[in-house]
């Protein structure tokens, strides 16, 4: 069996660990061969790939990013679509394609699978917003990076008795904000799933200040005040036509200062949350995903992806993963809100 591997969408710590695990496990079988497509589906359309042997993946499990490169190419609409993919697969004897990506990449894989392509999925996103799995690799690393940054922000905030606003990634899901905010002891956590008034934010900040604390407010990039209809965006559109989010923290800082009279500073963590080496937890999870994905390919379970439920690996249909984003449920936010102020 000749299996192609590609990484699509945004990068995430742990991608290389998936590739490494699949290749190393596959080498135990004499009839398994791997090739890596360069820059996601763009590499498939351009017939740009490289063989993957044991020496090619040696030591990459601890590296961030992806050795194969990535892109946000649409396999249905771009560069000739399914017909071109079918030609490339047939000419290069590709028996299965292992698609490692987030909701958009997996959705494209699902559409191809419905057309008969041998697609298996591996869920990847720092946002942890893919349905069907409890956790995605990359999330733990992003939370750890954000938490470390907030610990540093708190020391400078306390030195000047300022309120510090830390903006994290997450787009339409507040998982990074929720977990890093709890870990850092934030006095307010603002997520896309829960609109909040500036008055309420001000109350939380003043409550912390009145107790002699310097407030830390954590905000997800997709958060909106109760007076806003859409997420804050001043950076235009991305390559697939979505608004580029970012800047809500800088927007909120002067509003909080005006409402409370407390000097307030905003910091946007941005893409630093994607970079660097994956945490031990993400390396282990990504390794388990890579090995389990190979099992799916060997079993011919097309149009499915590997997932984590509790502590066990399982298999779910791709349709379940791409139907809707996994957002923060009310009860998870409410339990954190007890600690606000």
UniProtKB/TrEMBL annotation:
GO biological process terms held by the UniProt record: canonical glycolysis; fructose 1,6-bisphosphate metabolic process; fructose 6-phosphate metabolic process
Top class in the EC scheme: transferase
Keyword Acetylation: no
Signal peptide: none
Pathway where it operates: Carbohydrate degradation; glycolysis; D-glyceraldehyde 3-phosphate and glycerone phosphate from D-glucose: step 3/4
Protein origin, superkingdom: Bacteria
UniProt binding sites for Mg(2+): 103
Cellular location(s): Cytoplasm
GO MF term list: 6-phosphofructokinase activity; AMP binding; ATP binding; diphosphate-fructose-6-phosphate 1-phosphotransferase activity; fructose-6-phosphate binding; identical protein binding; metal ion binding; monosaccharide binding
Record family assignment: Belongs to the phosphofructokinase type A (PFKA) family. Mixed-substrate PFK group III subfamily.
Function: Catalyzes the phosphorylation of D-fructose 6-phosphate to fructose 1,6-bisphosphate by ATP, the first committing step of glycolysis.
Subunit structure: Homodimer or homotetramer.
Protein name: ATP-dependent 6-phosphofructokinase
Organism: Ruicaihuangia caeni
């Amino acid at each position: 069996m000749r299996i192609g591997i590609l990484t699509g969408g945004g990068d995430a710590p742990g991608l290389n660990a998936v590739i490494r695990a699949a290749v190393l496990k596959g080498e135990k079988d004499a009839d398994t061969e791997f090739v890596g497509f360069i820059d996601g589906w763009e590499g498939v359309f351009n017939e740009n790939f490289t063989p993957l042997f044991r020496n090619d993946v040696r030591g990459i499990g601890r590296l961030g990013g992806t050795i194969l490169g990535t892109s946000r190419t649409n396999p249905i609409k771009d560069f000739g679509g399914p017909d071109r993919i079918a030609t490339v697969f047939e000419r290069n004897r590709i028996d299965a394609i292992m698609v490692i990506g987030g909701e958009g990449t997996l959705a494209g894989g699902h559409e191809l699978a419905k057309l008969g392509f041998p697609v298996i999925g591996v869920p990847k996103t720092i946002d942890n917003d893919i349905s069907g799995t409890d956790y995605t690799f990359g999330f733990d690393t992003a939370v750890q990076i954000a938490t470390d940054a907030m610990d540093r922000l708190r020391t400078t905030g306390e030195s000047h008795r300022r309120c510090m606003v830390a903006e994290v990634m997450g787009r339409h899901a507040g998982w990074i904000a929720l977990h890093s905010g709890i870990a850092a002891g934030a006095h307010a956590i603002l997520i896309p799933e829960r609109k909040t008034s500036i008055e309420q934010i001000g109350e939380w900040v003043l409550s912390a200040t009145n107790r002699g604390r310097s407030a830390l407010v954590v905000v997800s990039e997709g958060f909106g005040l109760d007076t806003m209809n859409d997420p804050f965006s001043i950076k235009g559109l991305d390559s697939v036509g979505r608004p580029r989010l970012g800047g809500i923290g800088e927007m909120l800082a002067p509003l909080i200062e005006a409402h409370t009279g407390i000097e307030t500073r905003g910091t946007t963590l941005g893409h630093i949350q994607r970079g660097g080496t994956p945490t031990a937890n993400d390396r282990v999870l990504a390794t388990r995903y890579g090995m389990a994905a190979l099992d799916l390919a060997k079993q011919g379970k097309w149009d499915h992806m590997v997932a984590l439920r509790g502590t066990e690996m399982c298999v779910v249909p791709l349709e379940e993963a791409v139907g809707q984003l996994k957002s923060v449920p009310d009860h998870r936010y409410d339990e954190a809100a007890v600690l606000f102020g």
